[in-house]
Amino acid sequence: MYIPKHFEEPSIDVLQTLIRDYPLATLIALSADGINANHIPLHLTDDGSPYGTLRGHIARSNPLWTDFDPQTEVLAVFQTENAYISPSWYESKQQTGKVVPTWNYAAVHAYGSLRTIDDSVWIRRQLEAMTQAFEAGFPEPWFVSDAPADFTERLITQIIGIEISVSRLQGKWKVSQNQPPENQNSVIKALRESGQPAMANLVADAAKP
């Protein structure tokens, strides 16, 4: 990923927070037919390693679990909301007119080795851990044990566990850091007025001294 210095996010904590807040990954692997991409929610677990481990599952019918190169890293891409930035939002447009459109976004690239796990006990534990994490904010969280046991056991036979030991993380926060303060402030205001508070908050956080 091309990352100009002013858009680089070096904090591992910040990168891991994005992964936890936006867990739907684009998982890219090398298959016999070339590059293969799947969209899979991945649960980041703290296993004592520097970057953590990503765990999830895929359908047994998905060829990914048998058709990937174990010697080649896979890439999981995580991304927040994104937003078109109109040049008319910049305060400096009124002064010089030297402004152009752009697109704001934040993304994390997680690299590592992929392992597939065909073990019903492991898969159940992964489902329980992922569900507990994703249901935590609900007033009445759902648990795997809420479903009939025979129903759950049958579904578990139809999926395969996957695990990625993360070896490196890259983060790019392209959120108007290259703009002067007056433009950052006007972009924040325009984003809030256009119903995009999440991106407005990202720009505001990046603008803090």
From TrEMBL:
Instruction: Report the Pfam families cross-referenced here.
Output: FMN_bind_2
Please, which domain of life does this record's source organism belong to?
Bacteria
Protein name, entry field: PaiB family negative transcriptional regulator
Record lineage: Bacteria, Pseudomonadati, Pseudomonadota, Gammaproteobacteria, Methylococcales
